[in-house]
Write a structure and sequence with these properties.
Elements lengths: L2 E7 L6 E7 L36 E9 L10 E6 L24 E5 L5 E7 L4 E3 L2 E3 L2 E8 L3 E9 L2 H8 L2 H4 L10 E2 L4 H5 L11 E4 L2 E2 L10
Bound molecules: fe (ii) ion (FE2).
The site of fe (ii) ion has 5 residues, from strand 9.
């Protein structure tokens, strides 16, 4: 059953009321590229200016609510994002040997949810990539943690025909629970909504994706 949660959401703008569907808590593993070492605190994974070699990168906003297992927004939760860049590369010792990282990109970062339980990042659209014989569709990795709720590790995928086709060949995606995995797919916030000047979404050239992350209901999940 989906519960409607109406909150004042600051994911994309200050003090804006949005309703959120409380979907299932779909858990994934961290995978091979969870950041090693210190994770910088930042909401911008981009190092401006973006001109020059990085100009082909597509900048996106992603944000949403962190929800408890009871679908209540969780303030003060730590949110970690890690992802591939526009060339399908992770910043990690096990990533492609000799590949040149994008010096204008952080690759991973952490932030805290605000008093409304909202987070947001500005980042790059990740490229699909191949690793260990697997073809991965575009995705972002997330891990959230709070002292009371524990940990939730999950992934966000991107809506669209091309990505549907990539997912149909992505064995990691296909290994996810078929009844739950579609909750991991996010479509861009409708341009028409943004064109109305709704203050929830920035009126710029960047695409905005909404992705709420829910904690699972397991005691064993609680780890620091
Ligand atoms: Fe990945």
């Amino acid at each position: 059953m989906l519960l409607k949660v109406a909150v004042t959401n600051a994911a994309f703008g200050p003090g804006v009321a949005l309703a959120a569907d409380c979907g299932p808590a779909v858990q994934t593993e961290r995978g091979p590229f969870y950041p090693k070492g210190e994770i910088p605190t930042a909401r911008e994974l981009l190092k401006f200016p973006l001109d020059g070699p990085a100009v082909q990168d597509q900048v996106i906003h992603v944000g949403g609510l962190v929800l408890s297992q009871d679908c209540e927004p969780v303030s003060g939760a730590r949110v970690v994002i890690w992802q591939a860049d526009s060339a399908g590369l992770y910043l990690h010792p096990d990533a492609i040997e000799g590949a040149q990282p994008n010096a204008r990109f952080l690759y991973y970062a952490q932030t805290m949810t605000d008093r409304f339980g909202a987070y947001r990042f500005t980042t790059l659209l990740p490229s699909p990539y191949k690793y260990a014989g697997l073809s991965r569709a575009r995705h972002l990795h997330f891990e959230v943690w709070s002292p009371l709720q524990g940990t939730s590790t999950t992934e966000m995928y991107f809506a669209g025909k091309e990505e549907d086709q990539r997912r149909s060949r992505d064995r990691v995606w296909l290994s996810r629970d078929a009844n739950l995995r579609n909750a991991l797919i996010s479509a861009p916030v409708d341009d028409a909504v943004r064109a109305t000047g709704h203050p929830a979404f920035p009126l710029d050239e960047f695409r905005a994706y909404r992705f709420d992350i829910r904690f699972p209901n397991t005691e064993s999940n609680r780890r620091p």
